[in-house]
Amino acid sequence: MYITDNHMHIHDHLGLEAIKQFRKAGGTHVFLVSKLSTHYNLTPARGRDYNEIFQKHLKMVDQARKIVPGAYAVIGVHPAELTILTQYHSLERAKNIMMDGLEVAIQLIIEGKAVALKSGRPHYPVSKEVWDASMEVMHHAFTLARDANCPVQIHTERYTKEGMMEIRDMAKRTGIQPEKVIKHFAPPDIEGFKELGLFPSVISGKGIFDAIKAGPRFVMESDYMDDKNRPGAVLGPKTVPRRTKEMLARGVDEDLIHTVHVDNIESIYGINMDEDE
182: part of which helix (H) or strand (E)? Predict the structure, then answer.
């Protein structure tokens, strides 16, 4: 049985030990997402500076793949970068640095070194000017992903139907398929996503059992942060395998679980998971 964590980080707490724990708990596939520039002690002055972050992340994913062959890289520019960059640059300059960074990421994806782009908009209150700039950056990410035919994992504010409708409409304007837009840290109420066409990556707490009631149109994530300053955030690396086994123990249909962990993943990312074994 394949078990997939759609959104996890490895950084400066457990590092590769987190991947060993994931594997030991029964995990077989994991999407490892790059972090903020501050986590790499880097302050980008131009878009190409993000390549240093991406190369460090790709190297870590290569090491993780020796433990879990089905480890994949997700790279991009976190929306909170705008807050960081505007400490050193004008808003316009910061926005352009982020857009250029996304272009560096998409080239690596085209080369097959990563499978998805990361983008989004702030999850905390910001000025209208910052919000509008973030929307421009996300629009650019969607356009790049459309041309590369790859998915985008988006980091946004907490779910509201109105907010997700805005993102769905942006997807339509750019031409990216809505199901290629994955809402990271999605709530278990997945009906709204089904309606809009966006794909939910559901945080795998106990609420995952509410998601199951609405059917298998979701993927699961721990959003494990691997941050030495926040060692328990968000959920541990064993969570998705353990929660999946709990689902089975509670009598959840195996076909549903297969759809969540395999069929949805292969459809979104265009991969063949059997090739990883």
Answer: strand 181-186
Rounded CA gap, 76 and 42, in Å?
15
The pTM (predicted TM-score) of the whole model is 0.97
The answer to whether 30 and 23 have CB atoms below 8 angstroms apart is no
For the chain, domains (ranges, CATH) are 4-276 (3.20.20.140)
What is the rounded distance in angstroms from the CA atom of residue 67 to the CA atom of residue 61?
10
Angle, CA 259 vertex, CA 257 and CA 264 arms, to 5°: 130
pLDDT surpasses 80 at 277:
no
Cα–Cα distances in angstroms (integers) from residue 106 to residues 141, 175, 229, 259, in the given order: 9, 17, 30, 28
List, for residues 27-76, the tens digit of each pLDDT value: 999 999 999 999 999 999 999 999 999 999 999 999 999 999 999 999 99
End-to-end distance of the chain based on CA atoms, in angstroms? 12
Looking at the DSSP assignment, which residues form a beta bridge with residue 32? 8, 73
Mean pLDDT across the chain, nearest whole number?
97
